[in-house]
């Protein structure tokens, strides 16, 4: 039996409170989550609060970035992939980059691994991070942040090697979605773990949005699932179903129908802004968004059990 959790204890805030406290105009905001656990509800609250002139850092810039662009929140995007996750295109993003419509978008492009290296450098407070994977690529010609340095160590043949490096990224705030956390911010993730931990460590502040708040003993019983420890977290937000239309492993499935529909919605600027008016501006918070979709809808995204085997950590006798 799990102990009842005090939802006002520790670092627990509402989404409205967390965004108001930690996301400011002109900030660099990292929104990470790979395939599942995408912090969509956080993006929607940023839109509701009318943040402007943001630099958004997201490895896989997808629907939530498209929505934030359409709402006028973002002036610069740092990413390694842009697209509607195998289901189509991002209409607002394409208009901004291809036609500067309704205004241009500054876009910094890296590879997936290049972005990982930027987070690694940021989390370790390094001046840059070396990688080999840009050899033969044209990315260095379009991204001035990708540079070469002379290795301080000789190559096998004694020559001096020129190696690519990328700069660190240190967001003002990183926001991630996760399955569960305790009230202090010890955060547990399973399934695809992505780059969330490094993105948190790279940032000045960190907000963790979770499906479930759990008691301390739940976290202590399975410590290896704690990817982000409490000392790196500034706020914990309880927001069930807050990753929709992406999924949360073990909680609900991916809304593939929504992904398929988004290309047509975002292709039409009028229709896109009507969608924002109804589903973001027209809802007070994510709980209202969830309720408006209805329980029959959520029943269609329900998942069955696929339990992990318990392990014996052992203890002293």
Summarize the structure in words.
The chain has 317 residues and is α/β, with parallel strands linked by helices. Helices cover 32% and strands 22% of the residues. The protein has twelve helices and 15 strands. Strands 1, 2, 3, 5, 7, 11, 12, 13, 14 and 15 form a ten-stranded mixed β-sheet that branches. The protein is globular, with a radius of gyration of 21 Å. The relative contact order is 0.18.
In short:
The chain is of the alpha/beta class and 317 residues long. The protein is 32% helix and 22% strand. The protein is built from twelve helices and 15 strands.
Keywords:
three-stranded antiparallel β-sheet; ten-stranded mixed β-sheet; alpha/beta; globular; 317 residues; 22% strand
Estimated share of beta-strand residues: 15-25%
Output the helix-strand order: EHEHEEHEEHEHEHEEEEHEHEEHHHH
Globally, the shape reads globular
Count of alpha/pi helices: 12
Count of DSSP strands: 15
Q: Structural class, judged by helices and strands?
A: alpha/beta
Low-confidence stretches: none
What order do the helices and strands come in, and which of them pair?
Layout: E1 12-13, H1 15-22, E2 28-32, H2 40-48, E3 54-57, E4 60-61, H3 63-70, E5 74-79, E6 81-82, H4 91-99, E7 106-109, H5 112-124, E8 129-131, H6 139-142, E9 147-154, E10 160-166, E11 173-181, E12 187-188, H7 196-202, E13 205-213, H8 216-221, E14 226-228, E15 235-238, H9 256-267, H10 269-279, H11 286-293, H12 295-299
Parallel strand pairs: 1-15, 2-3, 2-11, 3-5, 4-6, 5-7, 11-13, 13-15
Antiparallel strand pairs: 8-10, 9-10, 11-12, 12-14
Helix pairs in contact: 2-3, 5-7
């Amino acid at each position: 039996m799990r102990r009842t959790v005090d939802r006002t204890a520790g670092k627990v805030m509402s989404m409205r409170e967390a965004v108001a406290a930690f996301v400011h105009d002109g900030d660099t905001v990292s929104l990470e989550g790979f395939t599942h656990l995408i912090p969509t509800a956080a993006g929607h609250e940023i839109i509701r609060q009318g943040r402007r002139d943001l630099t958004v850092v997201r490895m896989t810039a997808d629907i939530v970035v498209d929505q934030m662009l359409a709402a006028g929140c973002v002036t610069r995007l740092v990413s390694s992939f842009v697209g509607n996750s195998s289901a189509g295109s991002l209409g607002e993003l394409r208009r901004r980059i291809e036609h500067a419509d309704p205004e241009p978008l500054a876009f910094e492009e890296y590879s997936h691994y290049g972005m990982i290296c930027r987070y690694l450098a940021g989390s370790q407070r390094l001046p840059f991070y070396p990688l080999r994977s840009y050899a033969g690529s044209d990315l260095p010609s379009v991204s001035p942040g990708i540079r070469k340095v002379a290795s301080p160590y000789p190559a096998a043949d004694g020559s001096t090697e020129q190696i690519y490096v990328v700069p660190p990224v240190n967001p003002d705030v990183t926001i991630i979605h996760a399955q569960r956390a305790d009230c202090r911010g010890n955060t547990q993730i399973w399934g695809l773990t992505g780059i969330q931990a490094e993105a948190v460590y790279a940032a000045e502040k960190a907000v963790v949005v979770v499906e479930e708040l759990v008691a301390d003993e739940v976290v202590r019983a399975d410590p290896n699932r704690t990817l982000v420890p409490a000392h790196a977290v500034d706020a914990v937000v309880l927001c069930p179903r807050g990753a929709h239309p992406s999924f949360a492993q073990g909680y609900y499935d991916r809304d593939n129908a929504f992904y398929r529909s988004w290309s047509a919605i975002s292709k039409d600027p009028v229709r896109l802004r009507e969608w924002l008016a109804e589903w973001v501006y027209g809802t007070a918070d994510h709980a209202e968004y969830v309720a408006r979709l209805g329980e029959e809808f959520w029943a269609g995204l329900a998942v069955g059990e696929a339990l992990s085997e318990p392990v014996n950590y052992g203890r002293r006798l």
